[in-house]
């Protein structure tokens, strides 16, 4: 009679895989705990702040950052950043609107001047800081004078009517040629300043520019636009310039 072969029993070792994974995780945990114990407090707080910033953006509720249902511990900081962001957006919009406003103003000025005899004696340029209006001496003052004649007042009215209601600040600058002033003024500095003041007073007195929105500058013969070696060049250099400054600079900040 043959003996039946006994079947060898094999131990099931499937449990080793999850066990090894668990041990690996525990080892990793202890390594992290050990590392945290060695990190200085300042560095740890820095890391914590960074992680808080990252996770605080996971959810928002009424503009307030939250993690899950918990409130962001740095909520005041987040509110400040949100406020700054909104202000930057508003400034960018305001800057674009002002650019359009000044572009339209230049167009209106040029259109008004085209129908007058002084069109060739007035230049209107839109630059990065605002509108620059240059008035030639041909339509302003007699040689060595800062007095406004009726014709000068008429010419200034054509330009100044477009200034009413503007919120921007104005600068009125006076210039002369390089010939010395031998009349009623001590120097070209005084003459250029007197001309700027005369133009400024006319605009203020006629309600075209508010007195708290304007200032004057005097350059005498400095910053010429043409050569002073010819009569034509000197005539170009004897001028008054009006600058309408932008309220919003390129960086969005108010001027």
Briefly, what is this?
The chain has 255 residues and is of the alpha+beta class.
Number of separate helices = 6
* Overall body shape: elongated
Beta-strand fraction estimate = 15-25%
Question: Segments where pLDDT lies below 50 for 5+ residues?
Answer: 57-71
CATH topology of the largest domain: 60s Ribosomal Protein L30, Chain: A
Please identify, by name, the CATH architecture of the largest domain: 2-Layer Sandwich
Biggest sheet: strand arrangement? 4-5-8-6-7
Radius of gyration (CA) equals 38 Å
> How many beta-strand runs?
8
Question: What is the total domain count?
Answer: 2
Give the N-to-C terminal Cα separation: 114 Å
- CATH superfamily assignment of the largest domain? OmpA-like domain
Helix content: 40-55%
CATH class of the largest domain: Alpha Beta
Major pleated sheet: 5 strands, mixed
- Given helix and strand content, the structural type is alpha+beta
- The helix-strand sequence is HHEEEHEEHEHEHE
Q: What does the average pLDDT come to?
A: 79
Model description:
The chain is α+β, with helices and mostly antiparallel strands and 255 residues long. Helix content is 45%, strand content 15%. The chain has 6 helices and 8 strands. The strands form 2 sheets. A 5-stranded mixed beta sheet has the order 4-5-8-6-7. A hairpin with a 2-residue loop joins strand 2 (64-67) and strand 3 (70-71). InterPro entries: Bact_OuterMem_StrucFunc, MotB-like_N_dom, OmpA-like, OmpA-like_sf. It is a single-pass membrane protein.
Q: What are the main properties of this structure?
A:
255 residues, alpha+beta, 60s Ribosomal Protein L30, Chain: A, five-stranded mixed beta sheet, three-stranded antiparallel beta sheet, 8 strands, 15% strand
